[in-house]
Design brief:
- The complex is a heterodimer of chains A (about 425) and B (about 240).
- Chain A is of the alpha+beta class and about 425 residues long.
- Chain A folds into two domains: about 190 residues, de novo design (two linked rop proteins), CATH 1.20.1440.130; about 180 residues, 3-Layer(aba) Sandwich (Glutaredoxin).
- Chain A is about 50% helix and about 10% strand.
- Chain A is built from 16 helices and ten strands.
- Chain A has a five-stranded mixed beta sheet with strand order 6-8-7-9-10.
- The radius of gyration of chain A is 29 Å and the shape is elongated.
- With about 240 residues, chain B is an alpha+beta fold.
- Chain B has two domains: about 40 residues; about 170 residues, 60s Ribosomal Protein L30, Chain: A, CATH 3.30.1330.60.
- Chain B has eight helices and five strands, in the order ααβαααβαβααββ.
- In chain B, strands 2-5-3-4 form a four-stranded mixed beta sheet.
- Classes of the chains: A alpha+beta (about 425), B alpha+beta (about 240).
- At the A-B interface, helix 1, strand 1, helix 3, helix 7 and helix 14 of A face helix 1 and strand 1 of B.
- Strand 1 of chain A pairs antiparallel with strand 1 of chain B.
Amino acid sequence: MSAKRPIVPGLVGLLASSLGLFFSGFSTHDYAIQLDRQLHGAHCSFVPGLADATTGPNACSAAMTSPYSALLRDKLWGGVPIALFAVGLYVFFFAASLHLLLTRDEAGKRTWQTYGVAALTPLPVSVLMLTISLTKLDAICKLCAGLYVASLLLAIAGVLALVYAGGRKAKPAEGAAIDQGAATIPDAPPTGSWLSVPAQLAMLGLATITPAAIYVASVPDYRPYLSGCGKLEAPSDRQHALVKMKTSDPKQRAVSFEDPLCPTCKAFHQTLVTEGVYDKLDLSVALFPLDSDCNWMLDRPLHPGSCQLARAVLCGDKDGTARVVLEWAYEHQEQLREAGKSGVEALRKKILARFPDLDACLDAKETKQRLDKALQFAVANKVPVSTPQLYLGDRRLCDEDTDLGLRYAIGQIAPKVEQ
Amino acid sequence: MKASTIVAPLVGAALLFGALGLVRRDVSAAAKRLADPELAQQEQGATAVASPSAAIADDAEAAYCTPEFKGVLQRVLHACGLVGGQERRGCQPADVKSFASISDEDFNALFTPLEKRGAIIMFDDNADKLDDGAKKVLDERWDDRKGARYFFVVSRASKTGGAELNRALSHRRANSVLFHLQEQTGHQGDEDLDKKVGMLWLGSEYAQLSKDYCQGWETSRPGKKCDAEAINRSAFVSWVDCRL
């Protein structure tokens, strides 16, 4: 029998599935390795096998720690990574593409059509994730980009499978009138059993879900690790040193130690806001600038100028705009850090350009004393000299639980937040 | 059934099992490292980033906190009840003489680095009342706490009068300082005042100041007559930036 269907859909599908498996495999590996609650790098390359995992902030780490990278994060430490579903999905499509390739003309029309429709489904998910990357994360991770390309290729394979499901159209005979139309070759591919449709979909579902099920069954119990990171020894703010943040639905008393010029504080603040946790906290902030200008616990300034910004937040507290000032500081942190390195005066100018009303308060004796008291609060509570720190009630949220495990840890320590 | 129809499912099953194996291996390895962080450092040394252990927030520790200085202050804190859960009782000359175990000059020299941090509150002859200047200086010094934990009050009396009288007088002067601080801070709920303020009253028997202290040190009566008698009708006050 002559070949009526081209090999292109199968080949493109195989290529797409191989790419998808490759990138989703690395992505899943990078995710699973974090389950030990330690800091690890992430592969962020188009050739992840050739390049080492990179530590420090990068687009892949940002994507991985974002709330969009996993499901069920409130039920399971770290949740179930979306890449894990992609592993199962591309395993299925690898096998299905191979099937198309090997059984080209024997496979039923329904099999090709089902493949074609199913192969289109990863693309909308990729478009959604790409949109989230561009609008929420302001970065595209290279592993994710690899998956976007894989889903695009798979969609192309799907369209080709739909086009050729019924067999290749015969070319009109040379010289024949165009209006005679195209004619299919008489021995068209078989239609196939209708059972092939649910069978393929069931296999797709099974392949997609099984890795996730195995993952969920293997993840250890994290509850014993959540409570060993300390507590506030003297939580009462008798000296009125802390700054109460305005939140829309405060349910859980919390204290945080923050430095307006600390990049990790900014990231943590954004995570809490994005996860919808921040507004459920009855939050008091103990300003803890890592700047030796006011903080006697340091012998050199880690974040020069942060004392000045901390005072601006304290001044904002007088008219209830402390959160506005703090979030402005986070939003413009890079410029403010540069200004801080140039000197306090440059930073002061930036603050007053945005908040002219703070002029008298910034250098007032009372403001400086209140900042001293905030630092004394840290001493009284024997907290680590590091930022950020979040205490839910009196219990400290472990640093290890501030990214992937955040929702789960909060759900365990402060269930009111998740209600 | 043709061989071509079963190849793909077999390849798919093999791939799926392989993927499941890898997922399970990664998760199990992470679980082992979770249970044994040392193992994590050995196994993942190349890729794991060790989290540095942060220092614990603590009181200030200035350069003048020499072992000798801290030694004396430590003994003051213990003898005067600031450390150890006893009630504060302060220290009198006899105590100081015995626990300081150093000469008058060496004792005074220990406080020299506090020249810019502390102040000398001056009193009238045979009096223990704080005047307005004294209150102002005292409040300024008290408000300038920063990272210090202990506030020291070292009161004296001039050599005029008997030792017994001067001992009592210097005690009253130290108390005047304390009472003023209680007045100022009491309404702010500062219940730990007794654990912050260390008092020594030296009378006229021990560690008298020379008239050199009239210059360089901030006094509550700038521009007024200051001699060896006047400078000892005083209470030296200062926050001490040492971890004791």
